[in-house]
Amino acid sequence: MTNIVSHVGAIVENSPEQTAIGYEGREISYGEFWAQTGQFAAALEERGIGADDRVGVYLPNLPQFLVAFHGTLRAGGVVVPMNPQYKAREIGHLLSDSGAKAVVALSDLIPFVEEVKDETDVQEVVSVGEETENATPFGEFLSPNQLDVVDRADDDDAVQPYTSGTTGQPKGVQLTHHNLASNTEMAIATVPGGIGADDKQLGVLPLFHIYGMTVTMNATLFDGGAFYPLPSWDAQQATSLIREEEITLMHGVPAMYNDIINQPDAEEFDLSSLRLAGVGGAGIPIEVLRKFEELYDVTMCEGYGLTETSPVTHFNRPDDRRVGSIGKTLPGVDCRVVTEDFSDVSPIERGPVDEDETELDEISGELVIAGPNVMKGYYGLPEANEEVFTDDGGKRWFHTGDVGYHDEDGFYYVVDREKHVIVTAGYNVYPREVEELLFEHEAIADAAVAGIPDERRGETIKAFIVPKPDADVSAEEIKEYCLSNLAEYKHPREVEFVEELPRTTTGKVHCPLLTSLRVRVERCLRRRRR
Q1: In sequence order, what are the residues at sequence separation of 6 or more whose Cβ sits closer than 8 angstroms to the Cβ of residue 262?
Q2: What is the pLDDT of residues 67-106, one digit of tens each?
Q3: Superfamily of domain 6-175
């Protein structure tokens, strides 16, 4: 196989006038887009940046992100995507660890690059937006020449995203051309009939994140669809774009769908052009899924994956779906549920189970994944690689750290991240179970549950609640509501009302209070021992 950008090149040969990118009312054809990627690649080569060299892309969802991404790959380089919400300290680690030689950044973010540049190998800084000192404007950086696609091997690195991590510094994930190409094709196959020239994909998932990168950007451009990026999430803007451009495909995180259904005029949104609404990044509350489907008559399909798996491993197809499940494994992907000694956990007859009536520890284990989409490894971290991989049965299994179970029909269910299990008075409590119940309360707009220290129980449960506008609800009412629906040890003993829950751009709640303080590092490592 060759460089993955060759897939886009094939579309250009057949349909150069077709729209590749739609942004702020302007349509960019495949021919124009391809020419710009060639100019970007040539500019890198002219500056001595080429095969295996890292290029940081520090941008929100803009057309320049797509050009820099594909231009870097076209030159044989490796893309290091960086969260545009990061500050100097955070990008300093990514740039120094990866050894990036160039950075493409939003002009507002150039000061952060300058602050750490001397501690890195960065030679070239390119700015998008207003002109900035010490950076070359994006348009001026592009060469008048175009570089042909540089051949790459299957196992050559293509992208090096960084995991957010829970301990220590983020780790660089080496995703190869074969990793990305195979998973992109898998993602396309999850869409009924594939993705065609008539499809338009809403680009609201951040492109620096592997979910947005593979499932929305790459999947769309691989098959000749049109990609409509939005630099930031806004429910009103997104739904207006769906209506105006007749967007056919949308992927988002649960918080995005929750935002949409909680808009004051949610019932008036016209999303009738959508033929698929995918959701991932975190488990979606069933109540949110059902409300979205009722309002807009579109099937929502939940999937699962990790940065280390490029990312998608499981998906619920519209014609083969089970609410509450992450779906079945994609073709070519293998998944097992294993115990600490790497023995297989038997499937149950049919899921999902009633978690209030089931001993989850008896049916669940850690999900481990094998397949062409699994990363080469963590960049420069041989010890970390030894911990996360197990060779068994002629396959190399990646330990996800996620607790789940499966059924005889082939559906998988994630109970929760192992590190998020709350142990209170000897009982295991899975936050998602409590959160699912909270989302069903008519006065609650958003909710998250965490374990907090407790002298007698070790940990106890605290709920953070965002009430709906004008809702009249008390902490005691929330506690009684949970007590009447859950086992006593599962109910929140503390409730705090907040205006909003801080979330990362991938939809996960991001707050120190929402992370269990009893990190089970040793238990996680035991699961990963061979």
Answers
A1: 445, 468
A2: 999 999 999 999 999 989 888 888 999 999 999 999 999 9
A3: ANL, N-terminal domain (3.40.50.12780)
